[in-house]
Design brief:
heterotrimer, A mainly alpha, B alpha/beta, C alpha/beta, B: alpha/beta, six-stranded mixed beta sheet, 22 strands, globular, C: alpha/beta, seven-stranded mixed beta sheet, six-stranded parallel beta sheet, 12 helices, about 40% helix, disordered N terminus
């Protein structure tokens, strides 16, 4: 990414963000048209709420992931941090509730403040732990956050069992949270979490593009040694980055807990870290560090959630089975697209040699299988899903083979 | 007689720049053909086309009269072309032997890697290059000069009929360069054709049969060496007459800025036991102190220790303006108005994702603050002034830094440090890989800075450079300070003698 | 890979147009090419954005709590109900949505369906009885006019009674009591007057799990001590681990009680693998495929079997009646509406034993409430409805 990922870039047109915006509008319009209920056009308030709420949740975590990635690191533990923070919040609420109140209805404002504060504090502590592991112990970020990925969730589950047993005599894998404050939060969750998301986005943007710290973050990600030799306190900058990442995850945990009225550390937010990283990457962050913007990340999160929602509308069932595939395809496509322009100009070939030849049928096969599975939901095709899948696969094969043939012709 | 290699009408474009335009050039069999040009003239690009890294957009390449089209380096290797790159292409995690045989590993009859043979052969190759490094050493732990020798070994192991050397001596000492020249003679005697890219006129005029000059992507001239002079060649390279001007109108020497006393830096893993041993020196305002020495003598370690960027295990004393200091982080040195421009700007100096403004302003962002936030306008003003002052040629302050030539990049980094208004400037081999024209500009810049009262410590492997710039020269040999000369008494032989461990003549107490 | 400097100063360099065009093309093909282009209608004529929706088919959707073979039998029931009550003619299609064993999953699904106008009725097996968010989503759907009932897994009837008008399912307390009674008979049949037992379920705070476990405890009597209730969150490997841990932690363990359908094969697998089959009484709920196989081999002593098939059939019947305003049917199913327990429709229960030789005897059970069968009879019953599990 030129210019757009560059914090000092002058008023350069943000190509990447514009392309994302165009894609978002397009998906919205096309889905609204194809959906027999025309939900996006007729009844869009509900869908808007769903999309906004999910985007805000994903986006808050994605902003944290983006900051860490821009600084040259990576945080694999965001999902577990969300679960840990939600559990901490619920447990503190339990501590501050009356003895037999298993639904936590009786927590006073002090308890609520303590619970929220405690959850956010846990984010700070985990971020600090990451920074320490990475700078003092010299663990690679991948390893350090992998450890917390598995460790935090397990710790949260153990905490949950422990506190529920101590407090109420019987162990439970989750804690129900029916506190009126959080119920109110849930009622207005769309606007509160969207507002929080936009506020955090603004602050993040400000930091990244207008403060010395932000510039140091980009420098650190771009070339760590050079940054150090230029007087940047790299340890401190990393500390900020990882704390920011964990803090955003813990905030998201509070929202998630309020929204589902329960803190269940075993399952909560599994895989969220990968979605967050995907949103950041789709929005233009480079995993090598030093590149990325806030608008891009925001749009990336919105795009991802929009496509997932669009799939729900179109297959008329819950999309969470397809969610993984969707995110995977989008990430691969988004990063590929930024290379397409380069490849065409620089004479680079998309399907070179034997590797390219092998890639073509592989992609065609995946496309065919995907079409077959998805089409199983469509009554019009039912019974002939196999044929449908093969037709789609054959079409993809033909297109890619044509591309390859044109490349061969150009080369000779 | 058909030339061994012929470039006919080669044109190569990259986004935003035309690297080569209609270049036609013939290389005869068995000759040493030198190619000269400033950075950005297209020499490296032309050689990359020959070695298969790039494909030309127009024109043809002929080997032995037949047009060929290389789609990769393997094709070129198979056609007998080996290239020794200027930017080292080694895998740092692998050993020297592994790098030398990368892609052509020797196998046992059962198909497994035959490490023993590879180590032996590599050892032999290194011996001919007289490189003392054990072939099993991880390449990443070698200093730049040794890494380059590994590259040369790799090309030599290919037994090619054409060897392209792209500035091979830029990181070699005089002794090693001499050894390389002996190797080259051996190759020539065997009938190998050598294409030699360099802008060191003394080398070129010692070795070449014919010389080609490229400028701005075009072919300017090809002449027999005997029919021309270095002055003429450099004139064609820059399109103007360069005189290595005399920068020596007296510089005023001011008060003592920096004192280093008995500086010792331990090195536990090494038999010698230390990187620096009891080094003492002084630096005054307005003077340029040159530090000479071979590879591994400890020049960079000396500068890093002063700057607070090296190992914190040093002993001795460093005094700034009389007060003892001990920097634990470059930030502290920076705050004390000491600046350091590192060697190897690509690895240690540049931020490739930031533009020119971002690279230049990094250390002085605090001066561009307004209301706590970085003001773009102030930053641009600051950077533009610096860019003008250092003479950086760039399309604009928001251009990508990777698009600038090496010399301009180096100027940007120097500019970065100049913005911090240092009183002591440490320069570690600043003109490495920079063409003649840019070098002259850098010399003028450094000279100007000194007149303004800065004290400069300058490391260099090029003795003529030190003799041009420095007021005094100290020599390091294997971590010890073996000699100190004023400019008047310094000669290349004396310096070389001290650098190779000769008796410490006139060593300071 | 570093980019070169762009000296081009046009508004959008050429490459940018190419990139945007690609992005747009890809997005378009993704949205258009995605599966299920037009749902129920013929792909050839999607209605334009301005047209009113045609008399589109309305949907009845069943949301499960997680993935379990139990729901396959229910799906057969749904299909049977669809046929039997003439849904197609009435413009109703019935489908099943399998949840991912989390509360958020059900909340998200309920929200999604709220945005889709062609959803007419929803039946849900609530995964967490006390979860307020699920209740609120259910209420929101009903406010929009969608009919919502709970099946098999109910909300906490003490606190959230008003979340749904009706519940279809097993009377889980009764079911629990049946199993407790049977387990006691089995233990006494072995001559064990006392001992410990452990109960295994997906979630211990799920309504049907809770009720069953309480029922078991009540019926098994004070002579036997409930050592633990272990939850596995519908994770099969964890279900097995729980069984292993239970057998190691409690030395006086005499009986292993499985509460959800997949717990039965989990228990049986573990005791077979460890060679301790004879040490424990294995009493389970539901007749999953694998469980039936285990009972045939003598690995399970007694099953209390629900009737998910019937649940499915009645679900369709009820929802269709609610949608069409057919009060007669509703009245027939729920004669005591308004009274305590008037909102519950129980589907049948069976107690299945391997053979007449089992210590569990027909006489222990009230034939009005539960049907007693031996395994061969049960299998015959299954075959009659083309089922492989229940």
């Amino acid at each position: 990414m030129n210019g757009t990922g560059n914090p000092t870039g002058g008023w350069r047109i943000p190509r990447h963000e514009l392309a994302l915006l165009a894609a978002i509008v397009l998906v919205y319009v096309v889905t609204g048209w194809l959906d027999p209920n025309h939900t996006y056009f007729g009844n869009w308030a509900e869908s808007r709420d769903i999309i906004l709420r999910n985007t805000a949740l994903l986006g808050i975590i994605a902003l944290g992931a983006a900051v860490v990635i821009i600084a040259g690191g990576i945080d694999l533990s965001a999902g577990s941090m969300v679960a840990f923070s939600a559990t901490t919040c619920a447990l503190l609420l339990a501590v501050f509730s009356e003895v037999d109140d298993r639904r936590l209805v009786t927590v006073g404002p002090l308890g609520i403040a303590a619970a929220i504060g405690g959850a956010l504090l846990s984010g700070l502590l985990v971020g600090t732990l990451h920074a320490w592991l990475i700078t003092a112990i010299r663990l690679p970020p991948f390893v350090a956050t992998l450890a917390t990925l598995v460790g935090l969730r397990s710790f949260a589950r153990a905490m949950c069992l422990f506190v529920t047993r101590e407090r109420w005599g019987s162990e439970s894998q989750q804690i129900n949270v029916n506190t009126p404050f959080f119920a109110w939060l849930k009622e207005h969750n769309v606007w509160i979490s969207t507002g929080a998301f936009l506020a955090i986005a603004f602050v993040t943007w400000l930091i990244l593009s207008r403060t010395v710290l932000g510039r140091h973050l980009y420098a650190l990600g771009g070339n760590e040694q050079a940054a150090r030799l230029s007087g940047v306190r790299t340890e401190n900058v990393k500390w900020f980055a990882y704390c920011f990442g964990s803090l955003t995850a813990s905030l998201a945990g509070i929202f998630l807990m309020a929204d589902s009225s329960v803190a269940q550390p075993g399952n909560l937010a599994r895989g969220y870290e990968l979605n967050a990283i995907a949103a950041a990457v789709v929005g233009g962050c480079s995993l090598q560090g030093g590149v990325g913007t806030v608008p891009g990340t925001v749009l990336g999160a919105l795009f991802l959630r929009l496509v997932i929602d669009a799939v729900s509308k179109l297959i008329k069932a819950s999309a969470d089975i397809y969610e993984g595939m969707i995110v995977g395809i989008i990430v691969a496509l988004a990063v590929t697209l930024t290379q397409v322009g380069q490849a065409a100009k620089g004479g680079r070939v998309l399907f070179p040699g034997a590797r390219g030849l092998a890639a073509i049928p592989t992609i065609a096969t995946f496309a065919g299988l995907l079409a077959m599975m998805g089409a199983a939901n469509v009554d019009a095709i039912k019974g002939r899903t196999g044929v449908f899948g093969m037709v789609v696969g054959a079409c993809v094969l033909a297109i890619l083979a044509a591309v390859r043939w044109m490349e061969c012709r150009r080369a000779s | 007689m058909t030339p061994l290699i012929a470039f006919r009408g080669i044109t190569k474009r990259f986004p935003g720049v035309v690297a080569l335009e209609d270049v036609t050039l013939e290389v005869r069999r068995g000759e040493l053909h030198a190619v000269c040009g400033e950075n950005g003239a297209g020499k490296s690009t032309l050689m990359k086309i020959l070695s298969g890294v790039y494909q030309p957009d127009e024109g043809t390449l002929e080997i032995d009269g037949r047009p060929v089209r290389f789609t990769g380096t393997r094709d070129a290797e198979r056609a007998g072309v080996a290239i020794i790159h200027q930017e080292l292409a080694l895998v740092e995690q692998l050993s020297v032997a592994a790098n030398v045989f990368l892609g052509r590993e020797r196998r046992t009859p059962t198909g497994l890697l035959d490490d023993r043979t590879m180590l032996e052969e590599c050892g032999r190759l290194l011996a001919t290059l007289e490189c003392p490094v054990p072939p099993g050493t991880p390449t990443g732990s070698l200093r730049v000069g040794d890494q380059q020798l590994v590259e040369i070994a790799k090309a030599l192991s290919l037994d090619a009929s054409v060897v392209v050397m792209d500035e091979p001596t830029s990181a070699l000492t005089e002794a090693e360069s001499a050894r390389l020249e002996r190797t080259i003679s051996r190759l020539l005697a065997r009938g190998t054709t050598i294409i030699y890219i360099s802008h060191k006129m003394d080398e070129v005029f010692r070795l070449a049969d014919r010389i080609t000059v490229l400028r701005d992507g075009r072919h300017v001239r090809t002449v027999d060496r005997a029919a021309t002079t270095p002055r003429e060649i450099t004139g064609w390279m820059v399109g103007r007459d360069i005189s290595s001007g005399d920068l020596q109108t007296r510089r005023q020497r001011g008060g003592r800025l920096l004192e280093v006393r008995d500086l010792s830096l331990p090195w536990p893993e090494h038999p010698r036991g230390y990187r620096l041993s009891h080094v003492s020196l002084d630096l005054h305002a307005g003077e340029i102190l040159g530090v000479a020495g071979l590879m591994g003598a400890g020049r960079t370690e000396l500068l890093e220790t002063i700057f607070g960027a090296g190992e914190p295990t040093w002993t001795g004393e460093i005094r700034l303006d009389g007060a003892p200091v001990r920097f634990r982080h470059p930030r502290e040195a920076c705050d004390a108005r000491i600046a350091m421009v590192t060697e190897d700007r690509k690895r240690l100096g540049l931020f490739p994702d930031l533009d020119v403004a971002g690279n230049v302003s990094l250390c002085s962002l605090r001066d561009a603050l307004r209301g706590g936030l970085v003001s773009r306008r102030r930053e641009e003003t600051m950077v533009s002034a610096t860019v003008r002052e250092t003479g950086v040629k760039t399309p604009g302050v928001h251009a990508a830094i990777t698009g600038l030539s090496g010399g301009n990049q180096q100027k940007c980094i120097i500019g970065r440090w100049l913005l911090t208004r240092p009183r002591v400037l440490l320069l570690d081999d600043p003109t490495r890989g920079i063409d003649v024209g840019a070098k002259a500009e850098l010399y003028a810049l450094i000279d100007r800075l000194c007149r303004d009262g800065m004290g400069v410590i300058l490391t260099s492997s090029e003795l003529p450079e030190l003799l041009t710039l420095a007021d005094r020269i100290v020599v390091l040999a294997e971590g010890r300070l073996t000699a100190e000369f004023s400019r008047a008494e310094a000669t290349e032989e004396k310096i070389m003698h001290a650098a190779t461990g000769g008796s410490p003549a006139a060593a300071r107490a | 890979m570093r980019r070169q400097a762009m000296a081009d100063t046009r508004l959008l360099p050429r490459a940018a147009w190419a990139e945007m065009a690609c992005a747009v093309a890809v997005a378009m093909s993704m949205a258009a090419g995605l599966p299920g282009c037009s749902g129920q209608q013929k792909p050839a004529t999607p209605a334009g954005p301005g047209a009113a929706p045609t008399a589109a088919a309305k949907r009845l959707i069943f949301i499960t709590n997680g993935d379990d073979p139990f729901w396959d039998a229910l799906l057969s029931g749904l299909k049977e109900g669809e046929k039997r009550f003439g849904c197609a003619a009435a413009g109703l299609t019935v489908s099943r949505d399998v949840n991912n064993a989390s509360a958020e999953g059900q909340i998200e699904r309920l929200r999604q369906y709220a945005t889709q106008n062609d959803v007419a009725g929803i039946a849900i097996s609530v995964i967490q009885a006390d979860n307020q968010s699920i209740v609120e989503e259910m209420k929101r759907l009903q406010a929009k006019g969608v009919k919502v009932i709970t099946v098999d897994g109910d909300v906490n009837r003490n606190t959230f009674r008003d979340a749904r008008p009706f519940y279809i399912g097993t009377d889980n307390v009764v079911g629990g009591r049946m199993l407790g009674t049977a387990t006691r008979a089995l233990l006494e049949g072995r001559g064990l007057k006392e001992g410990g037992y452990v109960q295994f379920a997906g979630f211990t705070d799920n309504d049907n799990a809770r009720s069953r476990m309480n029922g078991v405890k009540e019926a098994i009597g004070p002579a036997y001590a409930e050592r633990d209730r272990m939850a596995d969150e519908m994770d099969l490997p964890r279900a097995r681990d729980n069984v292993r841990n239970a057998t190691q932690n409690h030395k006086d363990l005499a009986a292993l009680v499985g509460i959800w359908a997949y717990n039965a094969p989990a228990i049986a697998d573990v005791v077979i693998a460890s060679g301790t089959r004879d040490k424990y009484v294995v009493a389970t709920f539901d007749a999953a495929d694998l469980a039936i196989g285990h009972m045939e081999k003598g690995n399970i002593d007694c099953m209390v079997v629900q009737n998910p098939f019937e649940m499915g059939v009645q679900t369709v019947r009820l929802l269709k009646a609610m949608i069409e305003g057919d009060d007669a049917v509703v009245q027939e199913m729920y004669p005591r509406v308004g009274g305590p327990d008037g909102d519950i429709y129980t589907t049948g229960l069976r107690v299945v034993v391997p053979s007449d030789a089992s210590p569990v005897k027909k006489e222990l059970f009230d034939p009005k409430v539960v049907e007693f069968m031996t395994l061969p009879d049960f299998k015959a019953w299954l075959a009659k409805y083309n089922l492989t599990s229940s």
